[in-house]
Amino acid sequence: DSHAMLTDALTVRLSSADDLWVVGSVSPEDPRLMDIVRTQRPDVITTEIGPAAVATGGLLRKLRAAWPPAQLVVLTASHDSAHAVAAARAGAAAWVSKESSLENLLEVLRGVPLGHAFYPPRQLGAVLRELRDDVQRARDCSARLDVLSQREREVLLRMVDGKPVTQIAVESVVSTSTVRTHVRSILTKLGVRSRLEAVSVARAAGLRPVVDPT
What is the pTM of this model? Predict the structure, then answer.
């Protein structure tokens, strides 16, 4: 949280629980935040969010990328359902109002490692509707990808990774002209006019950049 008084108070109170161990606290604006997360490897991260829904999703995705096993809990004064939707899309397991009791927060912190999710009724309806619509859109886009050949899907996946034609050609052990032919075919079959649009369709269908295991 940006307010040191709050984080200090929570650190003291949570540390008094026999089954909880506070490994650190830091402001979201601290440039060391992601390094601290990677070093401490927490089971649960509680965080305040930014003033905009885009900022909400961005921060949570960075935290998840820094240490994927961590469960994300949003502890916030916001009542904006758009923020809650953005948090859910970014993988937050819980949305806790700062107006709620400490006992409620403790219940959430103990529950999310067990696979439980916590969203208040005021935000839950919007979250479920938007996530349901996301699933439908992904199905629709996934159906569009069915027209692609296996090789075209492989080329498209590398496009999602942001790789240029020359690199795709090297990795696929084909010529650059062959890759360009595949790209033109992909654009035609998907009914789009650019590689960027094709990548947007692929991402909406659930294709994501391949994470380097190193």
Answer: 0.65
